[in-house]
């Protein structure tokens, strides 16, 4: 893969990554040299510096690595608070932060969750930059 | 002079100043004017000394103002000097200091002003929340609605899970920092508090509560970095800048080891190496306790505490776990109680160390302190860390 060919259809760019996610596919970068998973994909591996990064579908299943609830939200998300967010360790080794569709009190470290994807809500579209408007939002659901 | 190679001057801090901290009725440039006035109280005018200027500043969201290098140089009367704003969220102040240190060290300038300013109260609490969230990865983190407290809560939750630390231990860190601030006339919150006050305060992002969080506040600070010869000519007390280190880490919290703050470790070790010391030589550290858990994590990353015991920072040295050094943490009261006007914070840390090492820290003086470490972070935890080792002139 050469970087000079990057365009908005390439999953190593954000538009390419979110287009695949909208279709239900979570793509990760995988370093050919050290196996580090990079979410979202990008041209270089942060673990070892290699530029031999391939793009591969990632399991959407994982476990809660850490979690909290947002009681003092940014203005764009005020109506949703308090809401639960977590760092999830996915089955293929990558980690991803996202909302959890559960009350804080019902979540524990180690819980099994699955990544789902939805369209942005009206307030989310309003808070989005022009190029983000149609990007999907991922949410973890408890298993 | 030595022959055969170019002599590189070792930078010193020759003067410091700060504005009042907290909720003020002054805009950023005016807060800067107060900090500058204190720093130059016993010196010639800035225009007669300063050859370059760096301004740490987090965000234009608060005052809708960029070009802070140009603006503050003008307000200081510094015509046509190189001047620029430095951005690294809450590490902006120490980045400004580091640039000044390098300019003096490499012989480019004899006197450089490092300053920082933030007018956080201009935008209200929700404005500050929004401005600070710009420090997170836009694509995943910001769009998920995380905030500064919730990002650090993710670290805290994991830290409590992996170690013997409890929410009460984190509360004790806040109590210790408020007790230190009670002796600091510059502090935003110079009041002692008790553990119950912390534990019973409003949830912000569990396990973190309101009193685990450094406050929103205004402030400015100014630090004059010079050659030792110039500081001597000016008859100023000197503090050596013996080492400086910086390191960036992943912007997204999820991609890091969340309890081993590797970027901070690298930054601290680089500063130790330049200074020719190890962690055990540090008498005082000003840590970046934006949230209580940061103090625990940074105590471990900087080599003061064995893994999993950093939360004991509130205990007297004799009561800490085996392997801890005798370092005293944040005699200023830290970000929690001294205050955390984002772009100025790294320079307020330098100010505290200057006062401690020159014997002007009053009732909060740490006796016989010769070496101080500053740890200033931006983004979430070690997204960027800047560290400096400062020592007394006598320690040379
Ligand atoms: Zn790699």
Automatic annotation (TrEMBL), chain A:
Residues 18-53 form the ChsH2 rubredoxin-like zinc ribbon domain. It holds the Pfam family OB_ChsH2_C. Residues 57-117 form the ChsH2 C-terminal OB-fold domain. InterPro entries: ChsH2_C, ChsH2_Znr, NA-bd_OB-fold, Thioester_dehydratase-like. PANTHER family: BLR3430 PROTEIN. This is Zn-ribbon domain-containing OB-fold protein.
């Amino acid at each position: 893969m050469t970087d000079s060919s990057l365009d908005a259809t390439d999953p190593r760019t954000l538009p390419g990554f979110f287009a695949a996610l909208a279709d239900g596919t979570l793509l990760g970068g995988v370093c050919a040299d050290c196996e580090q998973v990079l979410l979202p994909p990008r041209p270089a591996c942060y673990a070892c510096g290699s530029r031999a990064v391939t793009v591969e579908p990632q399991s959407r299943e994982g476990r809660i690595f850490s979690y909290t609830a947002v009681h003092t939200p940014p203005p764009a998300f005020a109506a949703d608070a308090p809401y639960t967010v977590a760092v999830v360790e996915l089955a293929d080794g990558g980690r991803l932060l996202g909302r959890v569709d559960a009350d804080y009190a019902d979540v524990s470290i180690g819980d099994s969750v699955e990544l789902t994807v939805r369209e942005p809500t009206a307030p989310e579209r309003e808070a989005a930059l022009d190029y983000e408007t149609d990007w999907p939002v991922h949410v973890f659901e408890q298993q | 002079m030595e022959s055969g190679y170019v002599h590189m001057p070792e930078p010193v801090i020759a003067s410091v100043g700060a504005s009042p901290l907290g909720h003020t009725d002054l805009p950023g440039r005016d807060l800067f004017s107060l900090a500058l006035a204190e720093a130059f109280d016993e010196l010639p005018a800035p225009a007669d000394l300063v050859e370059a200027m760096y301004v740490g500043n987090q965000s234009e969201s608060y005052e809708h103002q960029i070009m802070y290098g140009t603006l503050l140089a003008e307000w200081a009367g510094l015509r046509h000097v190189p001047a620029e704003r430095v951005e690294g969220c809450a590490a902006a102040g120490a980045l400004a200091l580091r640039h000044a240190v390098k300019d003096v060290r490499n012989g480019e300038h004899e006197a450089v002003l490092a300053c920082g300013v933030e007018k956080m109260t201009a935008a209200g609490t929700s404005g500050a929340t929004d401005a600070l969230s710009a420090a997170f990865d836009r694509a995943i983190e910001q769009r998920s609605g995380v905030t500064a407290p919730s990002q650090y809560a993710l670290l805290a939750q994991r830290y409590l899970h992996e170690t013997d630390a409890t929410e009460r231990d984190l509360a004790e860190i806040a109590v210790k920092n408020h007790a230190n601030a009670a002796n600091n006339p510059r502090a935003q919150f110079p009041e002692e508090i008790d553990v119950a006050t912390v534990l019973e305060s409003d949830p912000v992002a569990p396990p973190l509560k309101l009193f685990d969080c450094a406050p929103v506040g205004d402030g400015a600070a100014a630090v004059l970095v010079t050659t030792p010869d110039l500081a001597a000519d000016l008859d100023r007390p000197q503090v050596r800048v013996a080492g400086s280190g910086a390191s960036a880490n992943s912007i997204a919290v999820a991609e890091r080891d969340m309890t081993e703050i590797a970027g901070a470790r690298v930054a601290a070790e680089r500063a130790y190496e330049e200074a020719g010391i190890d962690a055990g030589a540090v008498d005082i550290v000003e840590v970046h306790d934006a949230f209580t858990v940061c103090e625990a994590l940074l105590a471990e990353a900087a080599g003061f505490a064995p893994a999993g015991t950093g939360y004991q920072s509130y205990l007297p040295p004799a009561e800490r776990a085996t392997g801890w050094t005798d370092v005293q943490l944040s005699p200023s009261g830290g970000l929690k109680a001294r205050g955390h006007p984002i772009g100025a914070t790294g320079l307020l840390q330098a100010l505290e160390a200057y006062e401690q090492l020159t014997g002007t820290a009053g009732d909060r003086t740490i006796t016989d302190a010769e070496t101080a470490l500053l740890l200033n972070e931006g983004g979430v935890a070690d997204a960027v860390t800047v560290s400096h080792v400062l020592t007394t002139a006598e320690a040379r």
